[in-house]
C-alpha cells in the first residue's frame, strides 16, 4: 500500500470519527435536556457527565491506538478475564434497576461490564481464530464456543437479552470468517432459534414485546407505547427536521429518548436528511474497517479490524432497526449518540484500536521495505 493511500484511509477515518463524536455529543445534549431538567433541575446534567466520560474515553482511545497487535493479544486475554469477573460481581452486588442488575457503581458512577465483555471477546476471538485458522474444525470450536457461552449465560442472568444477542452475532460472524464448514451453520442457526424462542416464552414481558412489535395499536398506552411514539417521532421530522434542540416528542412522549431511542430524536430534529447523514458516517467508518482488514497481512490484525467493523455495524443495525420498527423492541445504544458512560468509553477504545491497526499498516510496509533491501 502506498503512503498516499494509507494517509487517505487515516484521514478519512479521522474526519468520520470526529464528526460522529461531535454529532453524537450534540444529540446527547439535545435529547437529554428535558429529562435532566425534570429529574435534576439542571438541563445540562447528563451532558456534563457525557463530557467527563468523553475525556476518559479519549484516554482509552490513545492507549489502544498506541498498542501494536502483538500487545493487544495479551491485553485482550486480561480484559476478557476481568470482564467475566465483573459480570459475576454484577449478579452479586450490582445496581438493580427495574428488576435487572447490569451495572456496578459507587457514588453515582456506573459501569456496565457487558460493554467491556463484548469488546474483550472480539479481541479474544480474533486472536484464537487467527492461530487456529489452518485447522478450524468442530473440535477446535469448542473453546471459543464455551467462552462465548459463559459470557452469554452471565448476561442472561442479569438479564440483558440485547447484549446476549450481540455476543452470539459476534461469535457466529468470527466463526464464519475463520472458514467454518457450511454443514455446521444450519445446526447453529436451529439451536439459536430454539434458544431464542425458549427465552422469549420464558419471560412474559419478552413475549409481550414481540406482540407489540406486530400489533402496537392493540395496546397504544401500554406495551405498544414506545413502538408507536418512536415511529411518530421519526415521521414528524420530515425531510429537514424541526431543528436541533426543538424536538417535541422528547419532552414528554418518547421514553428513554437520550438512550435507547436517540435515533428517533435525530430523525425528528434533523429530518430524513440528517438521519441519512448519520447512517452514512457510520457506514463509512464500518466500510473503512473492512478495507483496512483486507490490507493487513497479520491474520490477528485482519480479524480484529473486521471485528471492530462488525462491533459498530451490529449495534447501529439493532438500534436503528428497533426505532424504525424493523426489529422487535430491545434496548441497544447507538455508539457515541446514546447517553451512557460505558458505551462511550468502550466505543472510543474500539475506535482507538482501529486507528492502531492503521498505524500497523505503516509498520508492515516498513518491515517489507527492510526485508527487500536485505535480500
Number of H- or I-type helical stretches: 13
Distance between termini?
20 Å
Helical amount: over 70%
What integer value in Å does the Rg equal?
21 Å
Class per helix and strand makeup: mainly alpha
The major beta sheet can be summarized as:
3 strands, antiparallel
Query: Quick one: overall form?
Result: globular
- How are the strands of the largest sheet arranged? 1-2-3
Content of β-strand = under 5%
Give the tally of β-strands: 3
Average pLDDT taken over every residue: 86
Our count of domains comes out at 1
Please provide a written account of the structure.
The chain is mainly alpha-helical and 375 residues long. It has one domain. Helix content is 73%, strand content 3%. It is built from 13 helices and 3 strands, in the order H-H-H-E-E-E-H-H-H-H-H-H-H-H-H-H. Strands 1-2-3 form a 3-stranded antiparallel beta sheet, covered by helices on one side. Strand 1 (95-97) and strand 2 (100-106) form a beta hairpin. Helix 1 (3-40) runs antiparallel to helix 11 and helix 4 packs antiparallel against helix 5. The longest helix is centred in the N-terminal third of the chain and has 38 residues, at 3-40. It is globular and about 55 Å long. Mean pLDDT is 86; it is low at 367-375.
Amino acid at each position: 500500500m502506498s503512503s498516499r493511500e494509507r494517509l487517505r484511509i487515516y484521514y478519512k477515518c479521522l474526519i468520520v470519527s470526529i464528526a460522529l463524536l461531535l454529532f453524537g455529543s450534540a444529540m446527547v445534549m439535545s435529547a437529554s435536556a428535558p429529562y435532566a431538567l425534570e429529574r435534576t433541575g439542571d438541563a445540562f446534567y447528563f451532558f456534563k457527565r457525557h463530557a467527563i466520560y468523553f475525556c476518559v474515553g479519549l484516554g482509552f482511545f490513545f492507549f489502544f491506538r498506541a498498542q501494536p497487535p502483538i500487545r493487544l493479544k495479551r491485553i485482550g486475554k486480561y480484559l476478557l478475564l476481568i470482564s467475566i469477573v465483573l459480570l459475576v460481581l454484577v449478579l452479586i452486588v450490582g445496581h438493580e434497576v427495574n428488576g435487572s442488575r447490569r451495572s456496578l457503581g459507587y457514588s453515582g458512577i456506573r459501569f456496565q461490564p457487558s460493554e467491556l465483555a463484548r469488546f474483550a471477546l472480539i479481541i479474544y476471538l480474533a486472536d484464537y481464530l487467527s492461530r487456529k485458522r489452518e485447522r478450524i474444525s468442530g473440535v477446535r470450536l469448542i473453546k471459543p464456543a464455551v467462552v462465548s457461552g459463559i459470557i452469554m449465560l452471565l448476561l442472561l442472568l442479569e438479564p440483558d437479552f440485547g447484549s446476549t444477542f450481540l455476543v452470539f452475532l459476534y461469535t457466529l460472524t468470527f466463526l464464519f470468517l475463520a472458514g467454518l464448514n457450511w454443514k455446521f451453520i444450519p445446526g447453529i442457526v436451529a439451536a439459536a432459534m430454539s434458544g431464542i424462542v425458549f427465552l422469549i416464552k420464558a419471560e412474559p414481558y419478552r413475549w409481550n414485546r414481540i406482540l407489540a412489535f406486530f400489533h402496537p395499536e392493540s395496546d397504544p398506552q401500554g406495551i405498544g407505547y414506545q413502538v408507536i411514539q418512536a415511529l411518530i417521532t421519526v415521521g414528524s421530522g420530515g425531510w429537514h427536521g424541526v431543528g436541533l434542540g426543538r424536538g417535541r416528542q422528547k419532552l414528554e412522549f418518547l421514553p428513554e429518548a437520550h438512550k435507547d431511542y436517540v435515533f428517533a430524536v435525530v430523525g425528528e430534529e434533523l429530518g430524513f436528511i440528517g438521519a441519512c447523514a448519520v447512517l452514512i458516517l457510520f457506514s463509512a467508518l464500518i466500510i473503512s474497517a473492512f478495507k483496512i482488514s483486507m490490507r493487513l497481512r497479520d491474520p490477528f490484525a485482519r480479524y480484529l479490524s473486521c471485528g471492530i467493523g462488525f462491533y459498530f455495524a451490529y449495534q447501529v443495525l439493532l438500534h436503528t432497526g428497533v426505532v424504525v420498527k424493523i426489529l422487535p423492541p430491545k434496548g441497544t445504544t447507538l455508539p457515541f449518540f446514546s447517553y451512557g458512560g460505558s458505551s462511550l468509553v468502550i466505543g472510543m477504545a474500539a475506535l482507538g484500536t482501529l486507528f492502531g491497526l492503521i498505524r500497523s499498516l505503516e509498520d508492515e510496509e516498513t518491515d517489507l521495505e527492510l526485508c527487500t533491501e536485505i535480500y
